[in-house]
Amino acid sequence: ITVDDITPPTGTAPANVTVECIGDVPVADPLLITDEADNCTVNPVVAFVSDVSDGNTCPETITRTYSITDDCGNSINVTQTITVDDITPPTGTAPANVTVECIGDVPVADPLLITDEADNCTVNPVVAFVSDVSDGNTCPETITRTYSITDDCGNVTTVTQTITVDDITPPTGTAPANVTVECIGDVPVADPLLITDEADNCTANPVVAFVSDVSDGNTCPETITRTYSITDDCGNVTTVTQTITVDDTTPPTASNPPSTTIPGGPAPAPDPSVVTDEADNCTANPVVAFVSQVSDNNPCPETITYTYSVTDDCGNQITVTHDVIITDPFPPTGTAPADITVECIGDVPTADPLLITDEADNNGVPTVTHAGDVSDGNTCPETITRTYDITDVCGNVTSVTQIITVNDITPPTGTAPANVTV
After folding, report:
1. Is residue 128 very low, low, confident or very high in pLDDT (cuts 50, 70, 90)?
2. Are 168 and 227 contacting, i.e. CB atoms less than 8 angstroms apart?
3. d(Cα 140, Cα 201) in Å, to the nearest integer?
4. Are the C-beta atoms of 143 and 162 separated by less than 8 Å?
5. Radius of gyration over alpha carbons of the chain, in Å?
6. Across the beta sheet with 340-342, what order do the strands follow?
């Protein structure tokens, strides 16, 4: 009887397994084969033979071989397939969201900002910048910055950082220097180009615009507040103001009217219209008004000085004077004493100004004086012309004459010598 076992033993390989990392591949363990059997051998020997990789990655297939051998050396191999395939993406935290004011302040993408990148299998997953995607808006503009974290199996995790670009800083600029002018017509036209130092943290050329002129409603001075706006591309606005003071300090002008001579008076009523060349730098029609009239109290001539004020709308004032000269061209009047006739030179009455009783003048009571007696040199009759002067306070003289006739018409008397007889 030849006893020769030629029947190989039997047994089932461990179940195929899939792991993610090479480090997760289980250690070979013959005890995992639990159903080894043989027709003759009670406990055939199970042994690990080898692990053979297909050389691929993701997945990598490892064929693990166990041998089952009976006591006669009959042997079979069973294989377990171990698949190594990392399907778990890596992890990492995006950089903190940031807000900046200007597009130029957006930081450069920097994968090194992700410091906690990790993976279940890969020691150093690769961090890379993917893209910046804007939402197309402005003020704010939202930029979504994407980084990728990639493990050795190409599993990718993307993380995003939100970068908000929002300019909230208003621009700057200096208002034009305050100015003072005299007339409202001298107020300069608003000119945004007078603001030359406009600047902004983001906008290269912020827009300068005229906003308004607002008056305080006063006059002399009137204050006008001129406002300009400086606006950046995000609509941040700074307003600057220029103060324009309108204050007329220049007095008006006018000439003294030429003097007027009025023979005999009376003095005229004040008349502002005698000032004809009144003018002002701002006021179209400065007001001429009567101030006073003063006489020099001289009788011949009397000068009356009329003072007029010339006032502009701001109360600036000058005075001009107009001289009215009152002259007296009118001689006084009076009636000479009645002509008389006397017989003898000794009967000629003494000159007596009081005999003129109706002397009169337009300028007070005139004075009557005896000017002289003039004889014609004749006798029987002799004519004496007696002159009286009537003089007014201005020296105007009227002469009146009285004729005194000396004519002796009475015959002389005498007694003849006594009659005699011889």
Report:
1. very high
2. no
3. 15
4. yes
5. 70
6. 340-342, 397-406, 382-391, 367-375
- CA dist 274 and 257 (Å) reads 6
Residue 365: pLDDT above 80? yes
Strand order in the sheet with 260-263: 260-263, 317-327, 302-311, 287-295
Beta bridge partners of residue 237, listed in sequence order: 231
Please state whether beta strands 382-391 and 397-406 pair in parallel, antiparallel, or not at all (unpaired): antiparallel
Overall average pLDDT of the 44-70 stretch: 97
Residue carrying structure tokens 């005699």: 420
Instruction: Give me the DSSP letters along 259-317.
Output: PEEEET-PPPPP-GGG----B-SS-SSPEEEEEEEEE---SSSEEEEEEEEEE-TT--E
How many CA atoms lie within 13 Å of 127's alpha carbon, on the beta-carbon side?
Answer: 22
Nearest to residue 288, comparing CAs of 272, 277, 306? 272
Quote the pLDDT of residue 326: 92
Phi-psi region of 220 (alpha: psi -120 to 50; beta: other; left: phi over 0): left
pLDDT, averaged across the chain: 96
What does the pLDDT look like over 255-285, one tens digit per residue?
A: 999 999 998 878 899 999 999 999 999 999 9
Helices (H) and strands (E) in the chain, counts: 0, 20
- Residue range 146-156, pLDDT digits in tens: 999 999 999 99
Give the pLDDT score at 378.
Answer: 95
SS3 200: coil
Yes or no: say if 63 and 55 are a contact pair by the CB < 8 Å rule: no
User: In the prediction, which pLDDT does 159 show?
Assistant: 98
Question: DSSP alpha helices (H): ranges in 74-227?
Answer: none
CB 399 within 8 A of CB 389: yes
Report the pLDDT value the prediction gives residue 265, as an integer from 0 to 100.
Answer: 76
Q: What does the alpha-carbon distance between residue 316 and residue 220 come to, in Å, rounded to a whole number?
A: 10
> Smallest Cα–Cα separation from 358: which of 340, 338, 333, 394?
333
pTM: 0.69
CA angle at residue 179 from 178 to 183, to 5 degrees?
Answer: 145
What is the structure's pLDDT at 113? 97
- Is the pLDDT reported for residue 300 higher than 90? no
Spatial neighbors of 1 by CB under 8 A, at least 6 apart, are: none
